[in-house]
Specification:
Layout lengths: L2 E4 L7 H16 L3 E4 L6 H9 L2 E4 L10 E4 L6 H10 L2 E4 L3 H15 L3 E5 L5 H7 L6 E4 L2 H11 L7 E5 L5 H11 L5 E3 L5 H16 L2 E5 L5 H11 L3 E5 L15 E6 L5 H18 L4 H9 L7 E9 L3 E5 L5 E5 L11 H4 L5 E10 L4 E5 H19 L3 E9 L2 E6 L2 E6 L18 E10 L4 E5 H19 L5 E9 L3 E5 L4 E5 L20 E10 L4 E5 L7 H8 L5 E10 L2 E7 L2 E6 L20 E10 L4 E5 L7 H16 L11
Parallel strand pairs: 1-12, 2-3, 2-4, 4-5, 6-7, 6-8, 8-9, 10-11, 10-12, 15-17, 20-22, 25-27, 30-32
Antiparallel strand pairs: 13-14, 13-16, 14-15, 16-17, 18-19, 18-21, 19-20, 21-22, 23-24, 23-26, 24-25, 26-27, 28-29, 28-31, 29-30, 31-32
Helix pairs in contact: 4-5, 6-7, 8-9
Length: 665
């Protein structure tokens, strides 16, 4: 069977689509509208816009402040904007955002002193616009050979900083060659500015050209990106560049069994569709005549609402083409392909798939029939949903929309409404967290007459939690270790979900260290290991322990410290009788007021501050009472050692003996 395959990326790119829409919108709002150059390189679109009052001009001569000028997607240099500002005309800027980005790069690098090298056609309007931002040191080259000559002449032995980029529609294969060459020179910076859509379109067209006997490239003869598509495909197969379907009738396709179709970024979808339809008719006529098949197709009746089977022959960005075994060409618009508005046609079906569809509209004059896969899926989905409603079983679906009051879940092609109260999401949280998620739900309400259903995600979650809870109490053993998720934190402890049950870890069982609040240790959402401390089967309460016996600070202290040892300790609190200093987390030693200094201390705060790190000696360890005493004074020089020399000095200076010290009162 002969076939025609249309490239998924054929037709308007983002920038062109945006420019054309702006042109039509501007035509409706204003009189005296002009485009500086044809809005796109497609004579049909230009002619249609002209009929609506939008005229293409080559210069701004004669433009006044009462006129509206549209800057096309190719963009222009800064001098054009300056002249329009001087004239005072209304400006509608339809420059492609990707081209705008190139303007910004060129302006910045040129201002920094770089030379600018541009891969492209020097006569192309996009390149002319880019050059306008580059200053004097700018050069345009066509291919890797030209680039090599330019580098050898000016930059091979130079330290001059150079920036290289390309027009958005440059040949991707040629650009790879240029980039590989430029990257050999450290003073050259390469910017990848070939539009991603252009690269994808060229790559896909190249693949199609290898898989088919002939390639048809649709687009304006003046379109740069269309010509590049033709060049890419011509290397692999017989290739024709046409502007419309009429031109196909002049070509001999008698030996062709398969054809690929791609189109430039300026080609409207309706022209691509006409070319596809005409090409299919040509190949069908060329195919060997089958009398029985012709009779069957002649008498095979279809009508609106009929369910038929078909084979997918092409998958485009906005529609799918299906052979339903009649002389009609079957089209499934994207809106009739799936109940999920977020999916692309290529996500749903592939060429060669056999699918069931319902006929929604027939146009015998044009030989077109419109189909719906979504309606078939919805019927199947309704059967699944009805069964689930009858027997209480669980169904799965994808959340496709967040709407007022809840979410829409598509279950086997049928839309099911889940109220916000039945989603399981907290009232103060956003339902957007469910978007595009696969969820399980119960059908809690079904209107068979209107075929509408209401579901509950929360009910499934509650049943699952109840099952987990029952399993926990059946299998849990005191002293065993389990993994859980921190669900909430209070002043007195932490609640951990250990499988359908929220167990409590009290503050004292959270850590051996002194803490002010449990949030210092864990956060909501943490996965932690806990030990089951106690289970009350009557009340359903479970006590848990997070702190580990291996981390018991008194065991660590006993194994690592001894009486008389000198330690570094951090002051953690101050009292009237002394200060407590942390030796290790969980072990605080008391520095009595008498052990702080070698003098009388009336106020501890005059000598120590919380946060100070001091050097102290362990003077007492009572493991039974869990007490440790520290002394700073024990490490200070004795009074006799420090005072004796001073007394001698005074005596010698005075020329007499020092008086005897009076007894302390």
């Amino acid at each position: 069977m002969r076939k025609v395959t249309v490239a998924k990326t054929a037709g308007f790119c983002f920038g062109v689509d945006r420019a054309v829409k702006l042109a039509y919108e501007t035509a409706e709002r204003y009189d005296r509208v002009y485009t500086l150059g044809p809005i796109i390189h497609n004579p049909d679109v230009v002619k249609d816009l002209e009929a609506k009052g939008v005229k293409a001009i080559d210069s701004l001569d004669g433009i006044t402040a009462e006129d509206t000028v549209i800057i096309r997607s190719h963009g222009v240099g800064p001098d054009v904007y300056e002249k329009l500002l001087e004239i005072g005309a209304r400006v509608v800027d339809a420059t492609c955002p990707y081209v705008k980005k190139i303007h910004q790069i060129v302006a910045e690098r040129s201002a920094a002193g770089d030379d600018i090298l541009i891969a492209g056609d020097s006569d192309h309007p996009e390149v002319k616009g880019i050059v306008g931002y580059a200053g004097e040191n700018c050069f345009v080259f066509e291919n890797a050979d030209d680039l090599m000559k330019l580098i050898r002449k000016k930059y091979e032995n130079s330290q001059k900083s150079v920036a290289i980029l390309s027009q958005t529609t440059y040949n991707i294969t040629k650009w790879e060659n240029c980039r590989s060459l430029a990257e050999q020179f450290p003073n050259i910076t390469v910017y990848d500015t070939v539009c991603a859509a252009t690269g994808k379109r060229q790559s896909e067209a190249q693949t199609l050209s290898k898989e088919n006997d002939v390639m048809i490239i649709v687009g304006g003869c003046n379109s740069s990106n269309t010509k590049k598509l033709y060049d890419v495909c011509s290397e692999n197969s017989e290739c024709y560049l046409i502007e419309n379907a009429e031109e196909l009738k002049k070509i001999d396709f008698s030996r062709v069994r398969s054809a690929g179709i791609s189109a430039g970024a300026s080609t409207p979808a309706y022209i691509i569709k006409e070319v596809q339809k005409t090409m299919t008719e040509i190949l069908t006529k060329e195919e060997e005549f089958n009398f029985e098949e012709a009779i069957e197709q002649t008498f095979k009746k279809i009508y609106t609402g009929k369910r038929v089977s078909g084979i997918v022959t092409a998958v485009n960005p906005t529609e799918v083409i299906v052979d339903i075994g009649t002389k009609h060409t079957g089209y499934i618009p994207q809106s009739e392909l799936s109940s999920d508005p977020n999916v692309k046609p290529s996500d749903v079906v592939s060429v060669g798939d056999e699918i069931d569809v319902i006929v929604t509209k027939i146009n015998d004059v044009e030989g077109i029939v419109y189909l719906s896969k979504k309606q078939v899926d919805a019927q199947k989905g309704y059967d699944d949903v009805k069964k689930a409603a009858d027997d209480g079983s669980t169904v799965s679906g994808v959340v496709t929309n967040v709407i007022k009051g809840g979410v829409i879940v598509v279950v086997s092609g049928m839309r099911v409404f889940v109220p916000a109260s039945q989603t399981g999401v907290r009232a103060d949280a956003s339902l957007d967290s469910l978007l595009k998620q696969t969820v399980n739900l119960k059908i809690i309400e079904l209107n068979e007459q209107r075929k509408r259903a209401v579901g509950s995600i929360r009910k499934v979650a509650a049943e699952e939690r109840a099952a987990k809870r029952a399993a926990f109490f059946e299998n849990a053993v005191i002293g065993s270790t389990v993994e859980g998720e921190v669900k909430s934190i209070t002043d007195y402890g932490v609640f951990v979900d250990v499988g359908g049950v929220d167990g409590l870890v009290r503050k004292s069982d959270l850590t051996w260290a002194r803490i002010k609040h449990p949030s210092e240790v864990v956060s909501v959402g943490d996965r932690i290991e806990v030990t089951i401390k106690d289970i009350d089967h009557e009340t359903g309460k479970v006590s848990l322990v997070y702190k580990k016996q291996a981390d018991y600070p008194w065991d660590i202290f006993r194994n690592n410290f001894e009486l008389g040892q000198v330690v570094e300790a951090k002051i953690v609190s101050i009292t009237s009788f002394g200060a407590f200093a942390q030796i290790i987390p969980g072990i605080d030693g008391l520095i009595h007021i008498s052990q702080i200094a070698d003098q009388r201390v009336n106020n501890v705060a005059d000598f120590l501050t919380v946060g100070d790190v001091v050097t102290a000696k362990i003077t007492e360890c009572d493991f039974e009472k869990k007490r440790v005493s520290l002394s700073i004074r024990a490490l200070l020089p004795s009074a006799e050692e420090t005072e004796a020399p001073e007394t001698e000095e005074v005596s010698e200076t005075a020329g007499e003996e020092a008086p005897e010290a009076e007894p302390a009162e």
